[in-house]
Amino acid sequence: MEKNGNNRKLRVCVATCNRADYSKLAPIMFGIKMEPEFFELDVVVLGSHLIDDYGNTYRMIEQDDFDINTRLHTIVRGEDEAAMVESVGLALVKLPDVLNRLKPDIMIVHGDRFDALALATSAALMNIRILHIEGGEVSGTIDDSIRHAITKLAHYHVCCTRSAEQHLISMCEDHDRILLAGCPSYDKLLSAKNKDYMSIIRMWLGDDVKSKDYIVALQHPVTTDIKHSIKMFELTLDALISFNKRTLVLFPNIDAGSKEMVRVMRKKGVEHHPNFRAVKHVPFDQFIQLVAHAGCMIGNSSCGVREVGAFGTPVINLGTRQIGRETGENVLHVRDADTQDKILQALHLQFGKQYPCSKIYGDGNAVPRILKFLKSIDLQEPLQKKFCFPPVKENISQDIDHILETLSALAVDLGGTNLRVAIVSMKGEIVKKYTQFNPETYEERINLILQMCVEAAAEAVKLNCRILGVGISTGGRVNPREGIVLHSTKLIQEWNSVDLRTPLSDTLHLPVWVDNDGNCAALAERKFGQGKGLENFVTLITGTEDLLLVEGMSVPKDEAVSAAHLIQAAKLGNVKAQNILRTAGTALGLGVVNILHTINPSLVILSGVLASHYIHIVKDVIRQQALSSVQDVDVVVSDLVDPALLGAASMVLDYTTRRIC
């Protein structure tokens, strides 16, 4: 079996230390297990997995039908700074025997825990290749130092966001050994559909609890400021008691300070309070459903700012533990959570809201990318790491085939006749376009939009395009902030007070932007057309619906007479059509003169099928009617083929790339 210089299966050791890292590693482990012709999997379990006080979470690994090759008791109890150091030392003492026995080709290590640092140190010193998951991220505590230390020890890197990728490159890691895959847990999150989620809610919170009417609380100690984090946890519990909603409280992790946090829980009577359910562990499949249907999540867990965004659930992030992470719109930061009132006010602001779903940390296709990356590893290559010191290469974003994965948007254009969906690249290239007749009823139309977008998103993966979001161009009045069509043009029936953002965001787990087609045309010119680089310009859309038929024209009975037919009639010598074009062009010219006098733009761009027929008339009117000071302003015809689609795409590309750069 020849695989990039390897003539045998790749022996992969996955080491998991706690419930949190297993939720990220499990999807990879399942993928490896599904391809026994390429991989051999060894599972090593250590850390808090094996401690009763933290739920004996190794059992969930067994329930997932993985054979645990080795169990290592590495935790020194005490839950203080010294105990953490001693736990690292104990792991370093025990791991060499295990690694000598297993002899893996590569070890997969996740994240930023002190246990993971011991794993990476042992593997590096024993000349075992290391694949590090979630490197390059920034949170805001000692975890950053541990995460970056593991990065320096690791030979290969799987990161979740483009910012993390850039951080790794800035840290001089080899570009060719960095994979931007997304978070593996998102593969499970975005495919999790459990119609019976209410039974899960009732099991953990009680029979009388409704969806969106409860809170999930998960707070960990901050090891660099334990005293303050204990106080903040006490204030959080006081605020939750005052807020008076059913709350699922998960026990903290095993970091220094966790013992004191548990004492606070018992001091407040959390385990016996009628509004609280205190648990050590919830299986990840069930935890997904609990946070997806919660009214709010509160605490300082990375889960709140990473995974929960996939569902648009409101999150209150307390303190500094996650302050450096990229977040979606759903996260409200309370950095100085030093009073109960601040936390209570945040609860009142966030509870019960629904935000657009966010895919900052993944698109649901991480595991296939990671498996392909693993298969590409050549064991004949030298083990010694290479560092890429500045200057950094220009083309640095590489997928598993070392080909730039194209940042793209899904663009939707709702026209009077056709409904169009396109995959649009960052450079304005329409990679693929889909066109269907626009249905007459709301139900048929919204279902067709969803169907076309789902098909396009699936096709984008095959085309090596990473979809960042969805932009929609539609006629009529639009509320862009809420993503709602207020009043449509007469060409689109049953299209008033329509919320486009919510169904698309819920289905695709992507952020969605909506705007009027005229605004979208201007946005397209600014990003891709003749308005690029200009401080101000005006775009005018030209079109008509006059019903003109003359001898020589052939129009199917079911086709509305459009601007194209007007042009055809004029070319065939229809005097009425020619007069209409001349009259409309003159009126347009007077409108342009008024615009020049009022706002003095640098450029006027005429867009639409009639633009080239109006341009000379408009310029004549300007010469005759405009003030001399504005007669030098240029009037041009747009050279964009699909301004509505390109403008819809630009809403996505401008916003999302600004967030991740």
Instruction: Report the sheet with the most strands, covering strand number, pairing sense and barrel closure.
Output: 7 strands, parallel
- The class by helix and strand makeup works out as alpha/beta
> Outline, from the CA principal axes?
elongated
Query: What share of residues is helical?
Result: 25-40%
Secondary structure tally: strands: 24
Pfam families: Epimerase_2 (PF02350), ROK (PF00480)
Domain UDP-N-acetylglucosamine 2-epimerase: 38-375
Protein name: Glucosamine (UDP-N-acetyl)-2-epimerase/N-acetylmannosamine kinase
InterPro entries: ATPase_NBD, ROK, UDP-GlcNAc_Epase, UDP_GlcNAc_Epimerase_2_dom
Give structural notes.
This protein has 661 residues and is an alpha/beta fold. It has 4 domains: 10-183 and 365-376, Rossmann fold (3-Layer(aba) Sandwich), CATH 3.40.50.2000; 189-350, Glycogen Phosphorylase B (Rossmann fold); 405-516, 2-Layer Sandwich (Nucleotidyltransferase, domain 5), CATH 3.30.420.40; 530-639, 2-Layer Sandwich (Nucleotidyltransferase, domain 5), CATH 3.30.420.40. The chain contains 21 helices and 24 strands. Helix 4 links the parallel strand 4 (106-110) and strand 5 (129-133). The model is unreliable at 395-403 and 546-552 (pLDDT under 50).
List keywords for this structure.
661 residues; alpha/beta; Rossmann fold; Nucleotidyltransferase, domain 5; six-stranded parallel β-sheet; 24 strands
